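Chain and backbone:
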Amino acid sequence: MKKKLMAALAAGALAVIPASAAMAQESTLDILVEIVDTSFEGAQVTVVHGIPGADGVNVVEASAGTLIPNFNFGQVVTTTLDAGVEYTLNVSTSDDIDDGLFDDFVITLEEGTSYAVVAHLDEGGDIALTPFVVNAGEGVSAFHTAQFPAVAIVAGGEIAADDLTNGNAAQLDLEPGTTLTDVGVAAAGSTDIALPVADELTIEEGTRALAFAVGAPAEEAPEDEVDEEAEEEVEQPTHVDSGTGGLLDTGLPVWVAALMIMGALGIAAPAVATARRRS
């Protein structure tokens, strides 16, 4: 019975490891599109949440408190605020600006000006809070705020803007009624779209399209190395450790170890039941 239980545990671990590695590799790269009006009173502010895994935060202002509650990755909110007023903003884990994730961002908004404020990952994967002034009038503004090297903005099979690095924007002013086809983001110098924005984008009168690249690409996981370790355990099972079953000693993250144990128990249960019926 002990040998059967060991084999089942090892088989369960071997079955779960590849799935765990696949989850670790998941890409969060995305293009968020917001259509804003070009005519407004006061100042227009578009706030973008582009930090994967930091859900449920609040956008807070020092004197006004929470402006945007329960802000999640991929959300975009556009609002108007009074111009000529100094605002102190931050992204916070509570309603208190002192719990902010960044240094406080202080800005005085100008009348008739549109802004974009993006919480995102820089090219190195660190969190950043970057403000932009959005061009007035109709057109397209593309913002590179993803954990990725320089990119090109492609439309109609041609490069509309090239060598756009993290923390910068390409802003195209276009006549109302202009239609762009096959709009997307490619590696710098390339027209091969990696992240599509729209098959067709028509510039409507009185509007501007804002496109934000956010997130991070998939990370490579050493699946082969993990599989080899698991196979060695299957070939030479000797004992069953208590607690986590010795999985933490392999250097695997706790959540991977937990998944392995759950998978192992799911497979081990029928083996134990069979052994009991035969005894």
